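TA notes, week 10

Several of you asked for a full example with nothing omitted. So below is the full record: structure tokens for the whole chain, then the designed sequence directly under it. When grading your own attempts, check the secondary structure regions first.
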């Protein structure tokens, strides 16, 4: 921060400069998620983290990306402890990281089952198949191709429903660091003192610069961020 142009610049007359630095450690803890495929190609996602700040959307996005389907096709719901595996406290330090990880792993479970189901339908080796952008295809036969929705429509006739689940306690979460610099201008608003030694001042903050944000969080749901 001391090398930032704002910190190095000269202060204007009557202006003070404030510097603040913050840190938060973040955490993993236990989270669980279940995903069930519907015949119309949508999926039901159940999780145990109470929604804060639109976390249902960010967690649904984890699953949608793995399965290659629109996030609108993921129907997230928060359920109680009788319905989902143990999930620790909800908090900004862990929910998207840990419960999102559980959603990612549950979606990977569903993805592999989709590949296995397609292999059964086509009577081919599952190792020859791949699933990308919501399409299951053969790496050796370009004629073998099926979308996620097309497979979902066939579930009842090819072995039954497909669902996946995951329970995680992820490690390796990083800390968050932030540094801020603010120039504060104090303007006298009253010529005479309010009382002996006391004056009224108008305070304006300009400019305010967030100079550094090391190891900051990655935004998952930009529309949710805009809403804040």
């Amino acid at each position: 921060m001391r090398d930032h142009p704002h910190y190095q610049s000269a202060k204007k007359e009557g202006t003070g400069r404030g510097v603040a630095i913050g840190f938060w450690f973040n955490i993993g803890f236990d989270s669980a998620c279940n995903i069930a495929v519907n015949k119309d190609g949508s999926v039901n996602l159940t999780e145990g983290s109470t929604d804060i700040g639109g976390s249902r959307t960010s967690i649904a996005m984890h699953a949608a990306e793995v399965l290659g389907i629109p996030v609108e096709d993921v129907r997230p719901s928060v359920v109680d402890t009788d319905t989902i595996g143990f999930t620790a406290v909800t908090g900004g330090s862990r929910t998207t990281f840990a419960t999102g990880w559980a959603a990612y792993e549950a979606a990977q479970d569903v993805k592999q089952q989709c590949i296995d189901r397609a292999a059964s339908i086509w009577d081919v080796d599952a190792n020859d198949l791949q699933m990308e952008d919501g399409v299951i295809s053969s790496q050796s036969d370009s004629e073998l191709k099926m979308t996620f929705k097309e497979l979902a429509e066939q579930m009842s006739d090819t072995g039954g429903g497909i669902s996946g689940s995951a329970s995680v306690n992820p490690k390796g979460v990083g800390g968050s660091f932030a540094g801020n610099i603010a120039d504060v201008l104090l303007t006298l608003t009253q010529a005479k003192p309010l009382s002996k030694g006391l004056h009224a001042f108008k305070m304006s903050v300009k400019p305010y610069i967030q100079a550094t944000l090391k190891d900051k969080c990655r935004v998952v749901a930009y529309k949710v961020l805009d809403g804040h």
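The CA atoms of residues 65 and 71 lie 8 Å apart. Use that as a sanity check on your answer.
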